[in-house]
Amino acid sequence: MAKLLALLAVLCLSQVIGAERIVNCYWGTWANYNSGNGKFDVSNIDAGLCTHLSYSFFGINDSGEIVSLDTWLDYDLGFISQAVGLKNQNSNLKVLAVVGGWNEGSTKYSAMARDWYKRQNFINSALNLLRNHGFDGLDLDWEYPNQRGGNWDDRANFVTLLREIKEAFAPYGYELGIAVGAGESLASGSYEIANIAQHVNFINVMTYDFAMASEGKTGFNAPQWAVENAINFWMSQGAPANKLVLGVGMYGRSFQLSDNSQNWPGAPCRGEGAAGPYSGSTGYLGYNEICQNNWHTVFDYDNAAPYAFSGDQWVSFDNVLSVQYKMDFALRNNLAGAMIWSLETDDFRGNCGETYPLLKTINRKLRW
């Protein structure tokens, strides 16, 4: 018996060691509309750098059914079929349909989750979407239960929804993931963490956006201490490490300084930084924009994160070194892997050196 137990222990250990870690690549399909070298479509995706490709986003209607948010991209241009076709380049790639996102809000999802009929509409439309187009699973990105127009019952209703989706997916082997708010204050108000963890294959923890210009001062988008605190909180509340996927932003949060001479973390700001040439949104710069700016850059070792500034513009972001710190933490804690938001904001064209420098750093740590 002792020999048998020892053999079983060795086999279990080898399975854990041999299990491939997740590298989940979110793709914002609207980057097809970006200008110049920011334009991104399926041809720019290196399928070998991802274990999962998360096709973002689908939405829902008032009946709870999943709908396309851009039928021209999804169907007329054939982005869905092209994305699923990447499995021909990487036979192990899983392509997921992502439903939700920040712009979808919370109200419709709150109404769907509390209504049995709307939940069934959601689940049946999910099954049709996955079957008809060859997706391997669903990623539900409800931002966020009990927030932004939701209510306290969302927390329990979310568990019910996930349980029902899991049961419906089981005969087909579809995967079910969720994207969740990271920090303790948000997560504790939105999720019954131990309960939702039972019903999903993995949990994408959005460990970024820890500082915004609305706070009136500069700050780090994803400082190491905040990332670690968030993941440790999720584990303390019953989320198993082997279901937690650590989020890495391939972008920075930007700020307009109130005084150009005060350019350190925590310095006063008067608002969001100027829009970049590709992403076109104030307060937000893709890494592919940041790396070409040639601003003065400082690596802050206390926060294990860089920041850069020029004139009244200031940005906090992740670079190769800070991503290495994050991956070392993921490895030490036996996390399921890492996810990125998002493919189109890494330096996918290699304008600053090698292509996909941040994503390749993740792969070198977790997979290669």
Helix content: 25-40%
Counting structural domains, the number is 1
Task: Summarize model confidence as the mean pLDDT.
Answer: 95
The CATH class is identified as Alpha Beta
Give, in spatial order, the strands making up the sheet with the most strands: 1-2-4-5-6-7-8-15
Could you give me the name of the CATH homologous superfamily?
A: Glycosidases
Give helix and strand order, one letter per element, not per position.
HEEEHHEHHEHEHHEHEEEEHEEEHEH
Architecture, CATH level 2?
Alpha-Beta Barrel
Give the low-pLDDT segments.
Answer: 4-18
Beta-strand percentage? 15-25%
Which key features would you list for this structure?
Glyco_hydro18_cat; Chitinase_II/V-like_cat; 368 residues; eight-stranded parallel β-barrel; six-stranded antiparallel β-sheet; alpha/beta; TIM Barrel
Topology (SSEs and partners):
Elements: H1 2-18, E1 22-28, E2 52-60, E3 66-68, H2 71-76, H3 79-85, E4 94-100, H4 107-114, H5 116-133, E5 137-141, H6 154-169, E6 175-181, H7 184-190, H8 193-197, E7 202-206, H9 224-236, E8 244-249, E9 251-257, E10 269-272, E11 284-286, H10 287-290, E12 296-300, E13 305-310, E14 313-316, H11 320-332, E15 337-341, H12 357-366
Parallel strand pairs: 1-2, 1-15, 2-4, 4-5, 5-6, 6-7, 7-8, 8-15
Antiparallel strand pairs: 2-3, 9-10, 9-11, 9-14, 12-13, 13-14
Helix pairs in contact: 4-5, 11-12
How would you characterize the overall build of this protein?
This protein has 368 residues and is an alpha/beta fold. It has one domain: Alpha-Beta Barrel (TIM Barrel), CATH 3.20.20. Helices cover 34% and strands 23% of the residues. The chain is built from 12 helices and 15 strands. The protein has helices spanning 2-18, 71-76, 79-85, 107-114, 116-133, 154-169, 184-190, 193-197, 224-236, 287-290, 320-332, 357-366; strands at 22-28, 52-60, 66-68, 94-100, 137-141, 175-181, 202-206, 244-249, 251-257, 269-272, 284-286, 296-300, 305-310, 313-316, 337-341. The strands form 2 sheets. It has an 8-stranded parallel beta barrel, surrounded by 7 helices. Strands 9, 10, 11, 12, 13 and 14 form a 6-stranded antiparallel beta sheet that branches. Strand 12 and strand 13 (305-310) form a beta hairpin. The longest helix is centred in the middle third of the chain and has 18 residues, at 116-133. The radius of gyration is 21 Å and the shape is globular. The chain starts with a helix and ends with a helix. Residues 4-18 have low confidence and may be disordered. Residues 1-19 form the signal peptide. InterPro entries: Chitinase_II/V-like_cat (IPR011583), Chitinase_insertion_sf (IPR029070), GH (IPR017853), Glyco_hydro18_cat (IPR001223), Glyco_hydro_18_chit_AS (IPR001579), Glycosyl_Hydrlase_18 (IPR050314). This is GH18 domain-containing protein. Keywords: Glycosidase, Hydrolase, Signal. Residues 21-368 form the GH18 domain.
